[in-house]
Design a protein that fits this description.
- This is Small ribosomal subunit protein uS10.
- Keywords: Ribonucleoprotein, Ribosomal protein.
- It comes from Nostoc sp. (strain PCC 7120 / SAG 25.82 / UTEX 2576).
- The protein is of the alpha+beta class and about 100 residues long.
- It has a single domain, classed as Alpha-Beta Plaits.
- It contains two helices and four strands.
- The chain has a four-stranded antiparallel sheet.
- The longest helix has 17 residues.
- The protein is elongated.
- The relative contact order is 0.35.
């Protein structure tokens, strides 16, 4: 038996600000649902933490250090059975500049 492979769009989002990321995910899911496509997600992925250690003093004191950290929050949204209306609506969607988007067909 031959099974038909479903069409799927996978959208991967990254941002430093979690609230920006969540609002972007809501916009994408609402847009997909309005065009009669099935949206699954947002699926949260593990948060990446990058810690930087910096010396406080410009001279000798090696004991005095300061730590800074960046957190990268990530989400995945799968859209099944997309139509041409779905793709056009997603292309016209205006998302904040702090959100990194990667789309795979």
């Amino acid at each position: 038996m031959a099974t038909l492979q479903q069409q799927k769009i996978r959208i991967r989002l990254q941002a430093f600000d979690r609230r920006l990321l969540d609002t972007s995910c809501e916009k994408i899911v609402d847009t997909a649902n309005r065009t009669n496509a099935t949206a699954i997600g947002p699926i949260p992925l593990p948060t990446k933490r990058k810690i930087y250690c910096v010396l406080r003093s410009p001279h000798v004191d090696k004991d005095s250090r300061e730590h800074f950290e960046t957190r990268t929050h990530r989400r995945i949204i799968d859209i099944y059975q997309p139509s041409s209306k779905t793709i056009d609506a997603l292309m016209k969607l205006d998302l904040p500049s702090g959100v990194d988007i990667e789309v795979k067909l």
